[in-house]
Amino acid sequence: MGKAFRFASRLIAPAVLLAAASVVQSPASAGEIRLGLGDIESVETLNLMIAIERTKARGVDVNLISFKSEDVANQAIVNDQADIGIGTPYAIIQKVKAPIRLFFQLSTLQFYPVVNTEHYKTWKDLDGGDLVVHSRTSGTLAIANLMALKHGIKYGSISYVPGSEVRALGMLKGNIKASIIDSVNTNFLKSKDAKKFQVLPLGDLAASDEALFARKDYLEKNAADVQVFLEELVKTWREINKNPAIVQTERTKYGLLKDLPKDLEKEILPYFEVGAAGGMFPNDGGGASAARADFDFYSVAGQIKGNAADLKVEDFWYLKPLDTVLNKLK
Amino acid sequence: MALRDLSRQAWMWKILSFVLFFGAWEIAGQIPISLSFPTFVDTFVAFMRMTFDGSFLGAYAQTVQPLLIGVLISSFAGIACGVGMGLWRGFEWCTLVIFIILQAAPVAAIIPLITYLYGIGLTSKVIAVVIMSLPLIVLNSYKGIRHTHPSLLEMSRSFQGSRMQEIMKIILPAASPLIFAGLRLGVGAGFIGVVLAELLITPTGIGDLITYHRSVADYPEMFAAITSIIVLAAVTLTGLLKLEVFVRPENRAR
After folding, report:
1. Is some CB atom of chain A closer than 8 A to the CB atom of B72?
2. How confident is the model at residue A262 (pLDDT cuts 50, 70, 90)?
3. B33 interfacial to chain A (CB closer than 8 Å)
4. Nearest Cβ partner of A15 from B17, B24, B212?
């Protein structure tokens, strides 16, 4: 009996382990969207939070779930444990044929090449110089590679330090001489020493920093809920582009980020003013033109394989919900 | 003859266990239980490719550095500290509580704090390894010393053995099984520490391979990288077990 039990347990244990891994959560009910955010709520997500509150006011409940990282959020969507994710999951769509599609560009990339002028003053100075970016497949590395091509330079070394705030602190301490960092931390460095820290010219970048994506079958089955959410997103983005100050009034109205420290409160208006001026929040949700810009950019970043010109928009984006909303709002 | 049969049977059970596990993995990947879950065959192919194209070699050249430094510090300092705690009450009272707290502390939460103190370089990663492995080595060594059988100590005294003879010939040999067990646990924890550090501080070595392949959705390569660190840890621990038998052959029967 004992031997038989041991034999059976040895046979069954691995199968039980793997079966347990496949247990999935129940899907959301109608009228509720589970939105997976691969980050925490912050100044940078205030515009999204306003659009969510407005969507809720129209009877569609949006449940914002914070995950540790974009990768975890991606897995939640792929495994049907969240409905809509935020990110740019081109690699998953292309490599594992995940039935997910992007459908709204939340923001374009807003990163700035910042140099310590004691070491570098122009792109040419960075020929053979040291540059620090986020990671091996990040947008920051793609920007670095694009600029190297454009200016005909070759970096001496490229190091990886995740987090714009960490790289900004590294620059402040003098450990990092040149990096590519987000707008909030660029402003932080310039506020500390505008002469020492300067931004090198970059040109226009239309590629997505964040986009909404979901399983295509979810978008088809829940078209009405998704349409309400997209309408509020487009309206909110257009209002912010006209007048960035509405973010503060809407924040007060809905009681968003109540615990935000005073220091960070001061950053709200500059962040949205710079973003609106730089075309960070598209009035039209990006659509096909955003997809094309992403193909070019993320091919350089190494997230998309193959010739960008040969890629089909419909293999990565589902444009019907956005087209419907844009036709309605004009 | 009977011993040889038993040994052969043990090997058969081990091989059967691997076959069942990898078979279940292959089936789970074929279903698939998740689109991101690769099959065993795909992972094995990726594992071999990364072994021969130098990916693992380059990664482990970086990962082994903090691991080796951390484990060596933990081993020498840990055994010395644990033996000291076991032999002297005053030292025990001063230090025992620190190691008990360290053992209970959630290290994944502490690692980001280390970066505030020591930045993002090698030092932080070594400290992550030491924090994981040191308490296990110290506490096992301490318990080994403390659990020396009283009759052995009485025998030493009845033969008028000096304190030094008591320590060298009775206490340390009696404690060696627990000290070695602590070393094995500590080295195992060191592997966890270095992977956590490479995932949470800056992506280097094997942590970089895992992060990179996850970000570009190369899941077979990502699983292969994770498998490689498990294999390396298992091989290292088996090596330690063999070393223990070599150093203390009388423990072979246990």
Report:
1. no
2. confident
3. yes
4. B24
Q: Which residues of A touch B27 (CB under 8 A)?
A: 18
Instruction: Phi first, then psi: give them for residue A65, nearest 5 degrees.
Output: -110, 125
Q: Looking at the 3D structure of chain B, how many domains does it have? A: 1
Specify whether the CB–CB gap between A88 and A303 falls below 8 A.
Answer: yes
The dihedrals phi and psi of A97, each to the nearest 5 degrees, come to 55, 40
Cα-flanking dihedrals φ and ψ of residue A214, to 5°?
A: -160, 170
| Rounded Cα distance, B128 and A292, in Å | 44
Q: Give me the helices (H) in chain A, please.
A: 2-21, 46-57, 70-78, 90-95, 139-151, 164-173, 183-192, 216-221, 223-242, 246-254, 262-277, 287-301, 320-329
CB hemisphere CA count around B111 (13 angstroms): 22
Q: Residue B180 is part of which domain span? A: 66-251
**Which of B31, B236, B18, B20 minimizes the C-alpha distance to B133?**
B236
Instruction: Name the closest residue on chain A to residue B119, using Cα atoms.
Output: A170
Q: Provide CATH code, domain A32-109+207-329.
A: 3.40.190.10
Domain of B196, CATH number, reads 1.10.3720.10
Model pLDDT for residues A90-119, shown as the tens digit of each residue: 999 998 888 999 999 999 988 899 999 999
Predicted confidence (pLDDT) per residue in B142-201, tens digit: 999 999 999 999 999 999 989 999 999 999 999 999 999 999 999 999 999 999 999 888
In a domain, B49, yes or no: no
C-alpha to C-alpha distance for A144 and A166, rounded to whole angstroms? 18
Query: B186 lies in a domain?
Result: yes
pLDDT of residue A20: 47
Residue B13 has pLDDT above 90, yes or no: no
Domain covering A111-199 in this structure, CATH number: 3.40.190.10
The confidence band for B120, taking pLDDT boundaries of 50, 70 and 90, is: confident
Q: Could you give the CA distance from residue A105 to residue A110 in angstroms, rounded to a whole number? A: 13
Instruction: Specify the range with the lowest mean pLDDT, choosing from A8-17, A140-149, A321-330, B5-14.
Output: A8-17
Q: What is the DSSP letter of A170?
A: H
| Location of each CATH 3.40.190.10 domain in chain A | 32-109+207-329, 111-199
Residue A140 touches partner B, C-beta closer than 8 Å: no
| C-alpha separations of A234 from A226, B54, B59 in Å | 12, 49, 45
**Residue B77 included in any domain:** yes
Q: Quick one: pLDDT band at residue B246, thresholds 50, 70, 90? A: confident
Does B27 reside within a domain?
A: no
